[in-house]
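Thread amino acids onto this structure.
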């Protein structure tokens, strides 16, 4: 298994772990939700550098699409906190359902969309 394949699998696992942590936070389970909230940072720690390195790794003729997706991901990082804040004004726990959409896409990227050439 190559290093890129390992990074891809690790990215998928960490994205799914983060989705699970968001579900736990959204359930308002007292201490388990608090610990899950702390673990979100752990699972998030390697996502951006891994996404970036896999995203720029030899995209070939898809370079324009790859670079625009990376730019959109950064823009999403500016939009989603605003949306989470709007939802959190009504229910803080429910706001943690929104990032699950992002983590599902990241898991999909790690598992299927990224192909080692």
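Threaded sequence (117 positions):
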């Amino acid at each position: 298994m190559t290093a890129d394949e390992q990074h891809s699998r690790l990215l998928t696992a960490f994205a799914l772990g983060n989705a699970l942590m968001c579900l736990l936070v959204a359930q308002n389970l007292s201490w388990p939700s608090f610990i899950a909230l702390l673990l979100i940072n752990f699972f998030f720690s390697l996502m951006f550098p891994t996404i970036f390195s896999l995203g720029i790794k030899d995209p070939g003729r898809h370079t324009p699409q790859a670079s625009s997706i990376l730019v959109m991901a950064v823009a999403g990082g500016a939009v989603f906190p605003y949306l989470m804040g709007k939802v959190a004004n009504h229910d803080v726990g429910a706001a943690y359902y929104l990032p699950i959409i992002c983590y599902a896409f990241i898991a999909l990227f790690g598992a299927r969309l990224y192909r080692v050439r």
